[in-house]
Amino acid sequence: MYTGPTVFAVGLFIIMIQPIEISGKFDTRISSKGFCDVCQSEHSMVLGYSAPYARELFDTLTEAGRIDFDVPESEANPKLSTDYLMGDARGQMFGVLVVRDKDGNTGLLKAFSGQYNGLWNVAGWVPPLVDGLKMQTATASIERYIKILGRRLETAQDADIRKRLINKRKAISQALQKDIHNMYMVPNYCGTLKPLPEVVSGDGGIPTGTGDCCAPKLLGYAARNSLKPLGLAEFYFGQQNKSGSKKHGGMYTSCKHKCSRILGYMLCGECKI
Hints:
- The chain has helices spanning 51-64, 132-155, 159-183, 214-224, 260-267, and strands at 6-10, 13-19, 27-36, 41-48, 92-100, 106-112, 185-187, 193-195, 228-237, 251-252.
- By secondary structure, the chain is an alpha+beta fold.
């Protein structure tokens, strides 16, 4: 058990690992998995000791009504209210990862998927695999130009002009997405750090949002800091999604079309920690 919190600096944000003393049965059900092209093997992560802490986080979010529950209510950021998840945002995934450091201390990491109400970083939550500020700065002018092309397309009457605008916007958008993917630096437990396009398994393009889910954030942070994972759990908080596949309070395994294509690489070498 920790005698105090372990603190790591990530850019301008400080992530504190919540000290915990694990107990109870180790749950061997798989929560995340993926195929690693490097070692040609499938790697997986189990629920382990994580499920009770996921339920505890769900209860805390419910009671506090905000994700910055570690600060006094008078200092709460309105953008971090859970009301956001009950409206048009239609909910979001949250996850916890139980970890052990090299000294045998156990602790808990927590993450939310993607951005929270437009914010990449929230104190106390694991950061993304990409530097959000750097990415926004690097892509802002290109995104503005894409919007300009879109407005031109709305008013264009000539068929040939419309076709050229469509093709130009598509080419620029594809190039921008490629640049964004290369900004995601993905670690694994072998000590390797590679850009996202180099670690995605399987055929086909890289789906938008790959690397932004809870499991990649949590495992990426743990790998960078030599923290052994002892169980990972993810749950959904908020209004049911449009497809009906995720409901408020439900626990789910990591997604197949995005997470599984990089988690095999990310978990490679985990058994050595």
